[in-house]
């Protein structure tokens, strides 16, 4: 058993999946199932409450999965809090993925507004999972504010540029007392493995799965990569050697030294 535990709740998958950008709701549903994810995030602004039960995106999220509404589109703390409260009223969950992204070009999270919103939402009884810059000081402040996880970016949302924040993620992991979920920009399964090998507790992937030629297969690939990276981390990695010298994998001296004088091989066929 190696469950991901968030706010006292155990999940047997360390891959969280987003629901945007899929060509069709049916493809999304099949991909969610293929990913093995237990937590699925949905943008509250995409949910049409009047269409629930009539083909809204939420109708295609398998009911056994935990819904993590997000405040995507919010540009300041006030808007994020309003969206979160609407989401809670509509879905009945206290979980919220806090996103405050005022810059339309980078969708970079606003650290000050994110922290402010986190404080307000925690005080209001939410379980807050904040999307944030890869900044160990901010991560500490969010944790102190009562956030249930820290969700630093790997690279810009939707960029598929991989783990550009590797060093900062390592520093965050080293100091965090809550799960660290690397969120955004993971473009290929090996990016997820890399994040997990660094010691991240989980990863969140949306675009790379949704826009793949075969989203269902890509979802499975991310699932396996997440597991592989986690196992690699738990197994304890070897320290990299210097770039200028090899270290033989087989201890040649001991083996050759133990051999007796060469033996004459029998001649076959004449
Ligand atoms: C779906 C979500 O909530 C975001 O965190 C984001 O969209 C994920 O990033 P990628 O789309 O780059 O995977």
- Structural Rg: 23 Å
The N- and C-terminal alpha carbons lie at a distance of 62 Å
H-E order: EEEHEEHEHEHEHEHEHHH
Q: Would you give the CATH topology?
A: TIM Barrel
What's the helical proportion of residues? 25-40%
Which distinct ligands sit in these coordinates? 1-deoxy-D-xylulose-5-phosphate
Q: Class, according to the CATH hierarchy?
A: Alpha Beta
**Biggest sheet, spatial arrangement of strands:** 5-4-3-10-9
The best one-word shape is elongated
Name the CATH superfamily classification: Aldolase class I
Beta content comes to 5-15%
Largest sheet at a glance?
A: 5 strands, parallel
Number of strands: 10
* Second-tier CATH architecture: Alpha-Beta Barrel
Overall domain count: 1
Number of helices, where a helix is a run of at least 4 consecutive DSSP H or I residues: 9
Uncertain runs are none
Structural category is alpha/beta
Global mean pLDDT: 92
Active site: 97 (schiff-base intermediate with dxp)
Function: Catalyzes the rearrangement of 1-deoxy-D-xylulose 5-phosphate (DXP) to produce the thiazole phosphate moiety of thiamine. Sulfur is provided by the thiocarboxylate moiety of the carrier protein ThiS. In vitro, sulfur can be provided by H(2)S.
Family: Belongs to the ThiG family.
Subunit structure: Homotetramer. Forms heterodimers with either ThiH or ThiS.
């Amino acid at each position: 058993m190696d469950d991901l535990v968030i706010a006292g709740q155990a999940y047997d998958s360390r891959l969280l999946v987003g629901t945007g950008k899929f060509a069709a709701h049916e493809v999304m549903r099949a991909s969610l199932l293929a990913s093995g994810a237990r937590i699925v995030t949905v943008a509250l602004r995409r949910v049409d409450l009047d269409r629930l039960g009539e083909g809204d995106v939420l109708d295609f999220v398998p009911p056994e999965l935990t819904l993590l509404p997000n405040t995507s589109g919010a540009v300041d703390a006030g808007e994020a809090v309003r969206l979160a409260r609407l989401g809670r009223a509509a879905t009945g969950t206290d979980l919220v993925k806090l996103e405050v992204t005022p810059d339309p070009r980078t969708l970079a999270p606003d650290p000050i507004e994110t922290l402010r919103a986190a404080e307000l939402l925690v005080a209001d009884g939410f379980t807050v999972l904040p999307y944030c810059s890869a900044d160990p000081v901010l991560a500490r402040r969010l944790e102190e504010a009562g956030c249930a996880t820290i969700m630093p970016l790997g690279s810009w949302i939707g960029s598929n540029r991989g783990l550009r924040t590797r060093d900062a993620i390592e520093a965050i992991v080293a100091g965090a007392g809550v799960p660290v979920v690397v969120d955004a920009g993971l473009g290929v399964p090996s990016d997820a493995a890399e994040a997990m090998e660094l010691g991240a507790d989980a990863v969140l992937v949306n675009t790379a799965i949704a826009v793949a030629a075969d989203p269902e297969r890509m979802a499975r690939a991310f699932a396996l990569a997440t597991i592989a990276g986690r196992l690699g981390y738990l197994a304890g990695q070897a320290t990299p050697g210097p770039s200028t010298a090899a270290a033989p994998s087989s201890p040649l001296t001991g083996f050759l030294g133990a051999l007796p004088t060469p033996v004459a091989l029998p001649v076959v066929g004449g």
